[in-house]
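Following the same procedure, sequence and fold were stored together, as reproduced here.

>
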Amino acid sequence: MLRVVRLPGLAALFCLITAASAHAQTVIITNAPQGTSLEFVLENNVEGTAMADAMGVATVVANEAHLGTRQMDAVVLVDNCGTTRRVLVLDKSAQEPPAGTCTRTEMNGVFLVQRITTLVVNVGNMPPTLLQRQGPAPAAWLQPTNSGSVVRIPYKRHFVVSAGYGLMQYRNFPTVACGNINGCIYDKVSESPTGALAYWLMPYLAAEGGYMRFSRLNAGTEGTTFNFGSDLEGGAFTASALGAIPGKKWTVFGKLGANYQGSTFTTHETVFDAGAGNENGMRLVAGGSQTLQYHTAGWGWQWGGGVEYWLTKQVGVYGEVGKFFINGSDTNGGEGTTSDTANHVFAGVKLRIPSFF
């Protein structure tokens, strides 16, 4: 038992020494089936091959002259070719070579590859997973995976900027604006531009902050003795946790969070001049106009979900549906309050921005 425990450590130490002594890019595969060989392709160059050892680890170091001192934003592809695992590191703008009869997996994200970069690909996972370090790989990365333990999903963290436009349908605005006045004409749906910035910590988890604007909703009517008009407009900052089921092109996501809204409700009303009289005759009763306005702000919940489709590695489109709970109290200490819900539908574009944190 003691020998079995030491072997993984010795294999890891050997790989670390190999990686540390190299001054060029290094690719290591772990948990490879017995008899598996590693082939490392850097841009258009086959850097070499190596056979996995008894612990399922194989290492190939690139020719230092091929990348030199420059660095590149790269995509990483892993081809399963039977007893060979081919790891391709390509500039993100380069054309991918055909996979042939191999099964290809693209690692999710864009990776900064420098002279000192080490990539560790766990080919024991389905699909393969990737860990990256600017320098030698830690020994823990090279240990065989215990099939009974939880496998962490390595991921290249990144930002996603989104911009969209959509519709919000309010539930309570007609009741608040019109009351019980017959013939009141009102809006229930506003147009809403929106934007957000998300930081993806893992393929399935992100934090997002954003802002959305509510276009003006109007309500009003005119009677024989009066007319009035009311409107509501505002916007909200949002903070959400995102969960996702990622895919190569399609991603299904859901979100749950809070919003802080600020909105202004304004009413203009006019009472017309009218005649009034009794047995002593008629007299004119003057009308008048007034404007009532209050501003509210406060926190509310929100939830939603949708799908996104990535046209390229950096650019995608999305659609989203959900609900906002809009609450607030008068910022001037008055009695005005806002309490409403709004269903929303958004669509827009997303841009993936690499992060090297």
Notes: Residues 2-142 form one domain.
